[in-house]
Design goal:
Helix content is 31%, strand content 35%. With 105 residues, the protein is α/β, with parallel strands linked by helices. It has a single domain, classed as Transcription Regulator spoIIAA. It has a five-stranded mixed beta sheet, with helices on one face. Strand 2 and strand 3 form a beta hairpin. It is globular. It starts with a strand and ends in a 7-residue tail after the last strand. The mean pLDDT is 96.
Length: 105
């Protein structure tokens, strides 16, 4: 099942998400720089909300087509990890990151 995300407010970053078998999957394509940060904030908030609403066991984040991420965008994901740790144990879920070893951002 496809997950509806906020409409893109930038042309440098595209994100899509889906839910199947208890796993929320998302794919990030392009560049997560300062231009994309407001959109990234919205998308991650939506993914967090969907993970809790759907009571997922796992979230997969695919960065294999993300060419660059700056530190302020990286911090968005660090904050998400911290938020998951603050949930009660029965509501926590695992977050798996997939990366491209050829991209060194």
């Amino acid at each position: 099942m496809s997950v509806e995300l906020p409409p893109p407010s930038t042309t440098v970053l595209a994100v899509n998400a889906s839910f199947a078998d208890g796993v929320l999957s998302s794919r990030f394509v392009g560049t997560a720089d300062i231009e994309a940060k407001p959109y990234l904030d919205e998308v991650v908030k939506k993914l967090q909300a969907e993970a809790q609403r759907l009571a997922v066991t796992k979230v997969e984040i695919d960065f294999r087509e993300l060419e660059f991420m700056n530190s302020s965008s990286f911090k968005v994901f660090v904050a998400w990890l911290a938020a998951v740790q603050e949930l009660s144990a029965d509501k926590q879920y695992r977050i798996h990151l997939r990366s491209n070893p050829n991209l060194h951002w």
